[in-house]
Amino acid sequence: MSTRLARILTTIFVLAVVLLPIYWLVSTSLKSNREITQEGTLYPHVPTLDNYVRLFTEKQFGSYLTNSVVVTFFSVAIALVFGAMGAYAIARFRLPFAAERKIGLFLLTLRIIPPVVILIPVYLLMLSLGLLDSWLGLIATYTAFNVTFCVWMMESFFREIPVDLEEAAMVDGDSRFGAFRRITLPLAAPGLAATAIFAVLVTFNEFLFALALTATPRAMTMPRGTATLIGRIDTDWASMSAAGVIGALPIVFFALLVQRHLVRGLTMGAVK
Amino acid sequence: MQTGMQARKYRLQGAGLDLALPYLMLAPGLMVVLGVLVYPLWDGLRASTRAYRYGSPVADVGFHNYVQLWSDAQFLNSLWVTVKFVALSVSIEAVLGFALALFCLHEFRGIRLLRTVLIIPMVITPVVVAILFRLIYASDAGMLTALSEAMGGGGVQILGNPLNAFIGLVVLDVWEWTPLMFLILLAGLQSLPHEPFEAARVDGAGSWRVFADLTFPMMRPVLAIAIVLRTIDAFGTFDQVFVLTRGGPGEATRLISIYGYDTAFKFQQTGYAAALFVTIGLVVLALAFSAIRLLRRIDAS
Fold first, then answer.
1. Rounded to a whole number, what is the distance in Å from the CA of A266 to chain B's nearest CA?
2. Chain B residue with minimal CA distance to A166?
3. Does A72 reach chain B within 8 Å, measured CB to CB?
4. Closest chain B CA to residue A250
5. Which end of chain A is more exposed for a tag (fewer CB within 10 A), N or C?
6. In A, which residues are within 8 Å of B113 by CB distance?
7. Which stretch of DSSP H or E encloses residue B59?
8. Following DSSP, what letter does each residue of B60-125 receive, concatenated?
9. Residue pair A186/A204 in contact by the 8 Å Cβ criterion
10. Residues 6+ apart with CB under 8 A from A10
11. What is the sign of the dihedral through the CA atoms of B105, B106, B111 and B114?
12. A263, A272, A110: which is closest to A201 by C-alpha?
């Protein structure tokens, strides 16, 4: 009986610790600026959606959202196609000098290095190509990061699919690439989906490169745009909290879809 | 057996155009990576040996930038803050995550809800996580202040005080990343074999003995992986600090990534900042590789 009570109490405690900050964010986003800073109420006494409306009418959040969706979509889609092919080659072929294994390890090494390390040269590269503050600059950057991740994660999915099936298809007259496209790829679909959604999470959330590479609503993404609300002296708590809710919603929704595969993605496949 | 598999792999490779297939399949991805990651990496190395003025290189200075780092009090301080931050956050996360995983090992009602809710902190945009915590700490709009006032107290000062701000940052990281530790360690616990535990129960071992003699030793490799992954990740922490404190007050929360960013973009010392980042990259890689070697040794023994 006492262990049961302890379990219930611990569960409630953990839920409270995780959810209270989120409650406060949502609750703040529904208050007027006056209620937030002067009255310090524990819940919105006069709930209002003004803060959300203001984000889109005055603060260009429509642009930020569009930019985020476009940049995320293209960089994930391209990385997924390139990554799936690369991962398959590494999983199935034996190249001279074990090149495929070396390439795999090389991509993993690139993944370990904190992205901030190449921030300056990527900035200089985009500057010289005239791609600062553009979709293309962000898409190129994110695609590269996503490729290293997609290859690494999808390789493990391909390895789990028996080779016999492809052999059978090839005996029946399929080409090597045909066997990949018609047999292996569909079988790896759940893995592909998990990889894609995980790449979406990371890309949509990315801030550092968006900070350095974009400067106007033309290309600023959601996290980047949200950060512009933080003033030096004054902070517009109402807009900031509403922006937080809008930024977090789609991502939490996506994450709950792939719960099962999340740990694998977050640990680069180290844990299944 | 080995040669049989080898032969099968070669047969699968086919002939003619199929021989070029692996290269064709690897090429697009590698080209993007070479262009956008590897070239900048090399360019960064080159930049780190130069002096810049107004964003353009003016002189080759060899290793001067690297040498200078070690007499730069601000760099050394940011390194110290980073090490403190990483060590403190990761060890708290490991302990809490492990405790929570042990707690959740036995199925009970509400566990699914718990696991689902615990996913939220680590997937929310880091910038938004920082906003969450600004909203908690703020002296005017903050949850702590509101709670304190509701109980008749005064305003709470967190981000204006160096020690409190640093602790506040650690609390943020613990809130955000303990769930990851928890999920990794829970997966590890669930994959442990049952037999030793049943044998221990038959022998009448107490739960502390079971933990110290069985669970903990068997969990060491998974624990090591989790700690290594988190450590590497925590070293690159940027977004949360940038939004929460911008490194302040003073230099209390100025992690090395923030210092590097300011050096490059605020003070325009491109070459010096590049040397700083190369140094961080080398430190993290060294950490990762020594961790991998350590893991191999644990695996072997």
1. 8
2. B12
3. no
4. B124
5. N
6. 11, 15
7. strand B56-60
8. E-TTHHHHHHTT-HHHHHHHHHHHHHHHHHHHHHHHHHHHHHHHHSS--TTHHHHHHHHHHHHHS-
9. no
10. B103
11. negative
12. A263
- Phi then psi for residue A146, to 5 deg, are -65, -35
Across-strand partners of B56?
A: B53
Chain A neighbors of B19, CB-CB under 8 A: none
Q: Which amino acid is at B184?
A: I
pLDDT value at position B249? Answer: 87
What are B215's two structure tokens?
Answer: 């669970």
Which of B11, B36, B241 is best to mutate for the A interface (most A CBs within 10 A)?
B36
Tokens, residue B92:
């708290």
Average pLDDT of the residues of chain A: 84
Q: What would the two tokens of residue B199 be?
A: 């044998």
B65-300: which CATH topology? MetI-like fold (1.10.3720)
Q: Is the dihedral of CA A75, A153, A249, B143 positive or negative?
A: negative
Indicate the domain borders of chain A: 1-48, 59-266
Superfamily, domain A59-266: MetI-like (1.10.3720.10)
Among chain A residues, the shortest Cα distance to B244 is held by A230
| pTM exceeding the 0.80 threshold for the entire prediction | yes
Side chain identity, residue A55 = L
As to burial, measured by CB atoms within 10 angstroms (0-12 exposed, 13-18 middle, 19+ buried), residue A87 is buried
B162: preceding bond cis by omega (within 30 degrees): no
Q: How far apart are alpha carbons B249 and A183 in whole angstroms?
A: 58
CA distance B83 to B119: 27
Q: pLDDT averaged over chain B?
A: 84
A228 CB within 8 Å of a chain B CB: no
- In chain B, domain spans: 16-64, 65-300
Confidence check: pLDDT of A267 > 70: no
